[in-house]
Amino acid sequence: MTGKTITEKILSEKSGTDVSAGEYVEARVDEVIAHDVTGPLAVEAFEDVTGEDRELAAPDSTVFTLDHHAPADGVKAANNHNVVREFAEEYGAHQYEINDGICHQVMIEEGFVEPGDLVVGADSHSTTYGGLGAFGTGVGSTDLGTTFATGELWFRVPETLRFEVHGDLPDGVYAKDLILRFIGDVGFDGGTYMTAEYAGSAVGDLPIHQRLVLANMAIEMGGKAGIVEPDERVVDYLEHQAGLETSIDPDLASDDDATYEAVYTYEGSDLAPQVAKPSNPENAVDVDDVVGTDVDQVFVGTCTNGRYEDIRIVADALAGEQIAPGTRLIVVPASGAVYEKCLETGVLGTIVAAGGTFQSAGCGPCAGYHQGVLGDDDVCLATANRNFPGREGSMDSRVYLASPATAAATALYGEITDPREIGTDRYDDHATADPGVVR
Amino acid sequence: MSLEEPGRAWVFGDDVDTDQITPSRFIVSTDPEELATHAFNDLRPEFSANVDSGEFVVAGKNFGGGSSREHAPLSLIGAGVDAVVARSFARIFFRNAINLGLPVMICPEADRIEDGEEISIDLDAGTVHNHDTDETYDAEPLPPFLQDLVDEGGLKPYTRKKLDSA
Description:
The structure holds two protein chains of two kinds.
Chain A: H1 6-15, E1 24-28, E2 31-34, H2 39-49, E3 62-64, H3 75-91, E4 94-95, H4 103-109, E5 118-121, E6 135-138, H5 141-150, E7 152-156, E8 160-166, H6 175-186, E9 195-199, H7 201-204, H8 208-216, E10 225-228, H9 232-242, E11 262-267, E12 274-276, E13 284-286, E14 297-301, H10 302-305, H11 308-318, E15 328-332, H12 336-344, H13 347-353, E16 357-358, E17 379-382, E18 398-401, H14 404-413, H15 429-432
Parallel strand pairs in A: 2-3, 2-5, 3-4, 5-6, 8-9, 8-11, 9-10, 14-15, 14-17, 15-16, 17-18
Antiparallel strand pairs in A: 1-7, 12-13
Helix pairs in contact in A: 2-5, 6-8, 11-13, 11-14
Chain B: E1 2-11, H1 18-21, H2 32-36, H3 47-50, E2 56-59, H4 71-78, E3 83-86, H5 91-100, E4 104-106, E5 118-122, E6 127-130, E7 135-138, H6 144-151, H7 155-165
Parallel strand pairs in B: 1-2, 2-3, 3-4
Antiparallel strand pairs in B: 1-5, 5-6, 6-7
């Protein structure tokens, strides 16, 4: 018998059957999450499938956030918020408010997710939980609404693509650069239906907030999940970040003889900062290829790169400087706790003093709703996860994706700038440390 | 189930993501008919005003990538689209379509269909017929688990049955 991947182990455990890639299972779900866009449809699906005696299968692990349109940017969005509030109140689910932040960040900060959990979210970036060694996957609202009722959902056990990065990463190269490179190499649909598993010494050395970035963008290669084998660093992170006492099952790791769809191997020292050109994340190139491209706006935030450590890099790089004239810098913290931490540590003041705009917590302009939507012909460099046509506004706008360090350097010069050019010693310590404490 | 009545094919290219099917700014609604008025709003502005019930969306590889929004398949249902035929689908869109009862067919030869041609599909036989060229293309059969789910009428009837028997 051949060994199993961590994905096969988690889905075997949660389904109570011994399964391998390609098999279909119904599995117990540990946490379910929806937000203000997908929540109302999930509520409809739940009410549709349940009879008179409606109840949630697991109210304590059913979570709603208000993050995409927070605070409400229109009447319909405000009404959607009220649908979510009323539903959570009636059925006893957890519900977070407009100042609390993005679903995935809130779930992690609040200690809902542990290594080995099976998490489904009505949000495609529910893959993020893989940074903690959980299996997280995005589903639609009907999937989620039925899971509210039954606590179970069907899954096809996915094959796994393994990405190994050996050695050390050079200064100025972050998890964001790794994931953009991986997506560029396999393509926007290169991981469809599969788990992206990240391993190797350079990945093991990544602080948790950066592992979350790798897992988060697995969906941008079509992935069902992204995962990093959990270790003691996850235990420490959850203790400091969420006040959660946990331990790692030593078997929660892929076996040496597990079967992979493909294995991609990289040497850390060969890697450079990456930028994904418009209008697909798969258009990743070394930053050298696009250096000098004029930008109108730099956006730092999202469930990918809106954590304290990300914003801290930007503040450190901008300290005592001014962003380039004619360039707009928009910073949106991923959660209310991140916002408070930025306030306490002076990060917020540094960004504002440098000419940036610091907004309330949430998804910001990532999906093109508000807080910095792009106009015709606007060019933006964003720490976000998607740059599809029209994603952040006009169909005639263009979005480049990059790391917070590249974003900071770009804001300083008003054109795409290699973050190594501004001196990585200005900001790099904070990226490799593992503060993970926003409380 | 057969949808043997021919209908116009609206042909799209590769990697049409859910932001292009239903742009974010319109998904504050959950009503299929309202969503339908914005389907492909930016990518193909003439679609929503001209699509008729019984017509088909045909696409290249990886249709429906990106966001998990169920508004994307709902908008096509609201528009009266009978089925989506594509070379391949992104995972969440595929799952949502099956859950909602919108037929989706993985057809490796989908790119032989030209925009405006008349096609029909036979879900039981797993074929797509092009009435303009008189060609028939094979679609990949659904795995048995998913076929059972479709035969039950989608995820909601399947779940109701499960809850009733609990």
